[in-house]
């Protein structure tokens, strides 16, 4: 796996491109001179949890013949204050899975549990430093 990150302006705006040519814009906050032209790196981590688990969950629900009409994930992260080291890790992350369709709630909850506790590599990467909780909302 390889990602190429290329600076695209004279400040903090970058484009990250994967081996398939897909890209995402990255920028710093305006507080340090960014122009909000992309996601900040820590936001990308939260997006990665949502994306990783979404792929798992849709795959599991398809195998169970569940009809998902819409699927939204809201990820909230709370970071610790910046320490002497200069970095600030996530201390808590809450993930809310909102599904709509002809879906058995028990199957949805099981799919989410499997993703969050077994399959999602992003969740497993962040677990050592963040308390990650989740819930399922079926509309």
Question: Overview of this structure, please?
Answer:
The chain folds into 2 domains: 3-32, no CATH class; 41-138, K homology (KH) domain (GMP Synthetase, Chain A, domain 3, 2-Layer Sandwich), CATH 3.30.300.20. Helix content is 32%, strand content 35%. The chain contains 3 helices and 6 strands. The chain has helices spanning 41-63, 105-119, 121-126; strands at 3-7, 14-18, 23-26, 67-79, 90-102, 131-138. A hairpin with a 6-residue loop joins β1 and β2.
Biggest β-sheet: strands ordered side by side in the sheet: 1-2-3
What characterizes the major β-sheet?
Answer: 3 strands, antiparallel
Q: Structural class, please?
A: alpha+beta
Q: How far apart, in Å, are the first and last alpha carbons?
A: 37 Å
Quantity of strands, as a count: 6
User: Averaging pLDDT over every residue, what do you get?
Assistant: 96
- Strand percentage lies at 25-35%
Protein topology:
Elements: E1 3-7, E2 14-18, E3 23-26, H1 41-63, E4 67-79, E5 90-102, H2 105-119, H3 121-126, E6 131-138
Parallel strand pairs: 5-6
Antiparallel strand pairs: 1-2, 2-3, 4-5
Helix pairs in contact: 1-2
Considering the chains and any ligands shown, give keywords for the structure.
3-stranded antiparallel β-sheet, alpha+beta, 3-stranded mixed β-sheet, 139 residues, GMP Synthetase, Chain A, domain 3, single chain
Brief description of this entry?
With 139 residues, the chain is an alpha+beta fold.
């Amino acid at each position: 796996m390889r990602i190429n990150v290329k600076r695209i302006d004279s400040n903090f705006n970058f484009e990250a491109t994967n081996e398939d040519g897909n890209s995402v814009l990255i920028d710093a906050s305006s507080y340090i001179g960014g122009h909000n032209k992309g996601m900040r790196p820590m936001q990308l981590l939260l997006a990665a949890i949502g994306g990783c688990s979404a792929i798992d969950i849709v795959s599991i629900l398809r195998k169970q013949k569940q009809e998902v009409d819409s699927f939204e994930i809201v990820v909230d992260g709370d970071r610790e204050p910046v320490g002497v080291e200069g970095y600030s890790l996530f201390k808590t992350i809450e993930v809310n899975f909102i599904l709509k369709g002809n879906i058995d709630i028990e199957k949805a909850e099981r799919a989410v549990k499997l993703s969050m506790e077994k399959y999602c590599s992003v969740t497993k990467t962040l677990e050592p430093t963040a308390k990650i909780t989740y819930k399922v909302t079926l509309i």
